[in-house]
Structure formats: C-alpha cells, structure tokens
Amino acid sequence: MKVLFVTSEAHPLIKTGGLADVCGSLPIALKRQRQDVRVVLPAYPQVVAKAGALKLLAEVTLPDSSQPVRILAGQLPESKVPLYLVDTPELFDRDGGPYGDQHGEDWHDNAERFAHFSQVAVEIAMDRAGLNWQPELVHCHDWQSGLVPALLSLEENRPKTLFTIHNLSYQGLFDHLTFARLGLADSLWHMHGLEFHGMLSMIKGGLIYADWLTTVSPTYAREIQTGEYGYGLEGLLSHRADRLIGILNGIDDEIWNPNRDALIEHPFNAHKLKGKAANKAALQQQFGLTVDADRPLFGLVGRLVEQKGIDLVIENLPWLLARGAQLALLGSGESRFESVLLDFAKDYPDQIGLEIGYNEQLAHRIEASADLFLMPSRFEPCGLNQLYSLRYGTVPVVRSTGGLADSVIHADAESMADGSATGFRFEHADIGGLRWALGEALNLFNSDPKGWQQLVRNGMRQDFSWKSSAHHYIELYHKALS
Fold first, then answer.
1. Both 457 and 477 in a single domain?
2. Its annotated pathway (predicted)?
3. What stretches of 130-201 show up as alpha helix (H) in DSSP?
4. By the number of CB atoms within 10 A of the CB, which of 49, 218, 411, 436 ranks highest?
C-alpha cells in the first residue's frame, strides 16, 4: 500500500511533542510490514542538518506562483523510509523552532508557511510534483497539515485521506483576512468547511474533509466528543463519530528495553528482576536518599504544570512522606511549582531527589529504578511515560483519562485474581482522588510482596510496541480504501 505521511515534525529530525514521536516511528513500523510509506516534512534547518545525505529530487511550481519549490530527498534516520523535504527557505530556513522564534513567539506568517506546505503536499499526492509516484492514501497530522484533506476534496481521482488528531487544543486559528490572503477556494469558507466562528480553522480542514479520523487513544476519541475536551468542536466530532477511531500510540521498544538499555546501570527483565532492585539502590545513592529496598520509591518525569497534575502531587507530598515514601523527580515547568518542590527537597533530603530540567539518562534511570510512577494528568491524549513504566516494571499511578485509561488496568481483587492488573487508576482530578490511589498502591506494596511482584510482571508483559500500533493502522488503511 502506498501511503504519504504529511507532518510538521518527525523525531529525531525535529520535535516539540508527541506528534514527532509518532511520525518518526510509525512510518518505520509500517515500512517493516511492507508498506510503501513516504514522509514529507518542511526543510527546517535542524532537519536538513540531521537528515544526512540529501539530493534535489524535483521542482514543483504551485498555482499562482512563478517560483518553483525545491523538493529534497533523503531517508528518515536509521531507516529506509523515503523522506521528502519542502525546501522554501523564505518560509522554513529560520533560527528558532518549527512554529515560533527563539523567544517562544509564534511566527507571524504560520498560516502562509503551512498553507504553502499543504499545497506542495497536494501536488505530491496528485503526482504533479515529478516524483512519478502517487499514494493511495494520504495520512495527515494535526492542524499544520489540516488544509491537505480540504484541498484534495477539490480534486478528481484523489487519494483517500486520513487525519490524526494528536492534541485538539492546537487548532491553527487565523482571521478571515488570512483566508482571503491565502487564495483558498471560496467554496471552502462556510460553517461546514474551514470557517469557525468567523475564523479560519486549519484543523477543521482535516476534521471535515478527511475520509477517516483517528486520534492517539480510544478514550481520547470519546473525550473529544464532549464539551470538557472538545474545544468547541465536540459537535462536529460527534457528527463524525462513525469515522473517528482511537489507536493507542506505541513506544520504541529498542530504545526503551530494560534488558538492553545502555543508559541504566543494571539490565533486567520480567524473569530476572534483581537488576531492578540494584538500579533502585543506585538511584537512591545518586540522589542522596536513604538506601532502603523496602521503602516505596515513586518516580515522576515530566512537565511541572497543572495539566500534568503536579499540584495534586505537591498537595499529597506531606501525606506520602509521612508514610516513609521517597520521590525521584525530573522535570521543569511553572516557577511556582519548581520553587515549592525545591523547598520540599531541601527539607526532606533523604526522601526527595529532584533535578529541574531534562536529562535523558536520568529519565531512563528513574523508569528503571522506581517502584511506582506518578502520572495524575488532568488530560492526556495518549501519554508515553506510563508505557515506559510498564515496560520497566515501574507500576503506574494514573488518572483515568485518555491513553492512561486505555493502557493501565486498575489493580482490584478481580484484576489481581485474573492476572490483568497493571497499575492504579483514579477518576477525579482532585487531591482526594490521587490520595485514594496512592493508598491502594502503598497498601499492596507494603502488605503483599508476592502480589506486587506479580503486578510488576503483568505490566512488563504488555505489548505497546509500534509494531502493534502499525497493525491497527494498516487495518484502517484497508478499510479507508475499500
């Protein structure tokens, strides 16, 4: 099957979030299952620098433009997936990030940048770019490629289209003057098209015009059809519910493999857990915590913001510390949360290890060493750290939202008896909800060592590889083409 991925990010070339993880890993997993997958990406300077050998493949002239656009060709790193880069220096060759400058301000011409990118993608999709290749299906991601399904809807004999929502809160909203300036067809401007309360909504191009919609977990697919998570688009998404599917993201199980992880001191697996205990002792020593195998060690790696529920963790810290628990925390975010956590770490040096910032090796070591992992997010479209935690035998404590609800099975009497339990979940995003789950976790950890070991091994047996996710996408691709 011939599939064109249209994305504004792909790890390891350029990354601001989970979109890059998907578009850097899923095409490779699909290629391994013998799909003809190709990725098109803007030629940001960071991408050009990291992409290795590139060659000029073609030049395409867009309608209403006299300047040809260069298309560079290479491969996604560590793969045989063809990579096409849209090389328009005046739009993409800039210092800063893919969407904003070095000070965090959005580029003033983002609408023009991603409209241009989408138009070039359409030329490739319609085999008008001189590549002598046409996809059967175009897989678009988030608002930056939302215009592609809309523009393809105006074409005859077009490929099928699929649009993936990674985070609905980012919608690509611009004023009506921008719509006019971009020269988009007037037939696209109406409430059942690109218009959203008088604004141009690029994400609606995908939501309205794509043949199929996906998002990054089954629960998030249901949540975005509600007022709480729909950002004003819940009615549209409910209307398209028969074409909306949630497919849980995967993880790179070669990088995140406790048996072969070069970033941890002691490798281990589900059959030989001694290495995990050794990692715990090493991390306790590294952070200056009391070295004690019987003390529950919680890990947390992530952004210190309300969305991630860090305020709920802080409110529960005195309760946790009074019960002898320890915390190893790596992250950065709002200064008010950083300040409070620094104070706690100063007051409880033998129980709290804290590093503000990000450190890849430490992230791996926390996952490999902790007994439990905290992830009390208010919303989480998919989430990755709970998947890493399960892989590393670190029992996740999560709020029941998005991908967290889909990947963690709460440990109660029934799930412990049938061997399906993998962690602890709570419903309400408040102090009491998290405290209840912490209490459940501590009770099992302290009172039933054998049951705890079984819970750890249950998690480590789960398959959250990209191979599994790719299988679900291939099934949907076939459905879209039938």
1. no
2. Glycan biosynthesis; glycogen biosynthesis
3. 147-152, 176-182
4. 411
231: its two tokens: 């950002």
Same domain, 75 and 205: yes
Residue with tokens 């996408």: 473
Domain membership flag for residue 310: yes
Closest-CA residue to 139 (of 273, 271, 1): 1
Q: Are residues 241 and 313 in the same domain?
A: no
The answer to whether 16 and 9 have CB atoms below 8 angstroms apart is yes
Residue 64: what pLDDT?
78
Looking up residue 8, the CATH number of its domain turns out to be 3.40.50.2000
Q: How confident is the model at residue 65 (pLDDT cuts 50, 70, 90)?
A: confident
Query: In the chain, pLDDT over 70 holds for what percent of residues?
Result: 100
Mark the binding-site residues for ADP-alpha-D-glucose, compressed into ranges.
15
pLDDT score recorded for residue 235: 97
| 265 within some domain | no
Same domain flag for 346 and 415: yes
The yes-or-no verdict on residue 66 having pLDDT over 80 is no
What is residue 93's predicted lDDT score, i.e. its pLDDT? 96
Q: Are both 211 and 330 inside the same structural domain? A: no
Phi-psi region of 244 (alpha: psi -120 to 50; beta: other; left: phi over 0): beta
Tally of CB atoms within 10 A around 186: 9
Q: Which element (helix H / strand E) includes 276?
A: helix 274-287
3-state secondary structure of 126: coil
Two tokens, residue 54: 């590139």
191 and 152 assigned to the same domain? yes
Classify residue 154: in a domain, yes or no: yes
Q: How many Å apart are CA 238 and CA 240, to the nearest integer?
A: 5
**195: β partners:** 200
Dist CA 387 CA 2 (whole Å) = 30
* pLDDT at position 403: 97
CA 120 from chain centre, in angstroms, equals 26
The number of beta carbons lying within 10 Å of the beta carbon of residue 478 is 11
Taking CB atoms within 8 Å and a gap of at least 24, the contacts of 420-424 are 420/458, 421/455, 421/458, 422/390, 422/395, 422/396, 422/455, 422/458, 422/459, 422/462, 423/386, 423/389, 423/390, 423/395, 423/396, 423/397, 423/398, 423/455, 423/459, 424/395, 424/396, 424/397, 424/398
Q: Considering the domain boundaries, does residue 431 fall inside one?
A: yes
- Domain count of the chain? 2
pLDDT of residue 67: 86
Range of the domain at 80: 2-250+467-481
At residue 102, the pLDDT reads 85
pLDDT digits (tens, 9 = 90+) for 257-292: 999 999 999 999 999 999 999 999 999 999 999 999
In whole angstroms, give the CA distance from residue 87 to residue 93. Answer: 8
Residues 184 and 301 in one domain: no
For the annotated binding site, the residues are 15
As a whole number of angstroms, the distance between CA 381 and CA 110 comes to: 24
